[in-house]
């Protein structure tokens, strides 16, 4: 086999070529079998990892101004949630989202957290818009809090479509 390294033509002995090919094939096969799980972030959380969890189902409690202020999640907790999803934690690539939002009584527990992407059609910003609208509807008495928590944790995209009467969010 000939190798052109920067204009310098070299002929490699066949034993080196065979060894190089075998090493490359072995490395590719081994890495495809034993690589760590890589999961592309999805518009919806994995329900087995993030079923949703409510800290409160009391409308008089969650509709108080300032109720949702305690949204701090430690970096260790974020890393743990990312690892459950098989994704490396990289700050600012996704929002550590509360499936049931804090303003709707959602908890800060791992069962209610997931890494929600910024770069998809159904992204964190779109869900934030839904959360604001649902909070208005709950606190004005138009929607029952427990029903809102259930609907958002079952499939927030379907709830968005129903609330905003659209198949896609604005682009």
Overall description:
There is one protein chain. The protein is α+β, with helices and mostly antiparallel strands and 171 residues long. The strands form two sheets. The protein has a two-stranded antiparallel sheet. The model is unreliable at 1-8 and 20-39 (pLDDT under 50). It has helices at residues 14-34, 59-62, 75-84, 124-139, 145-164; strands at 2-5, 8-11, 94-98, 113-117.
* Overall geometry: globular
Mean pLDDT: 82
Amount of beta strand: 5-15%
Straight-line N-to-C gap:
54 Å
The largest sheet is: 2 strands, antiparallel
Question: Strands of the largest sheet, in order across it?
Answer: 1-2
What class do helices, strands and sheet pairing give?
Answer: alpha+beta
Count of extended strands: 4
The poorly predicted ranges are 1-8, 20-39
What is the ordering of alpha helices and beta strands?
EEHHHEEHH
**How large, in whole angstroms, is the Cα Rg?**
24 Å
The amount of helix comes to 40-55%
**Oligomeric organization of the protein chains:** single chain
Query: Count of helices?
Result: 5
């Amino acid at each position: 086999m000939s190798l052109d390294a920067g204009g310098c033509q070299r002929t490699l002995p066949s034993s080196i070529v065979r060894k190089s090919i075998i090493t490359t094939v072995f490395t590719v096969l081994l890495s495809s079998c034993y690589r760590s799980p890589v999961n592309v972030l999805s518009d919806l959380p994995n329900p087995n990892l993030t079923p949703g969890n409510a800290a409160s189902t009391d409308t008089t409690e969650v509709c108080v101004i300032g109720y949702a202020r305690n949204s701090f999640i430690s970096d260790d907790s974020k890393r743990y949630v990312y690892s459950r999803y098989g994704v490396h934690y990289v700050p600012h690539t996704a929002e550590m989202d509360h499936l049931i939002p804090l303003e709707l009584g959602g908890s800060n527990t791992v069962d209610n957290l997931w890494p929600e992407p910024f770069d998809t059609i159904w992204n964190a910003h779109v869900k934030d818009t839904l959360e604001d609208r649902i909070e208005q509807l709950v606190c004005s008495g138009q929607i029952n809090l427990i029903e809102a928590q259930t609907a958002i944790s079952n499939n927030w995209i379907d709830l968005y479509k129903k609330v905003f009467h659209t198949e896609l969010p604005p682009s």
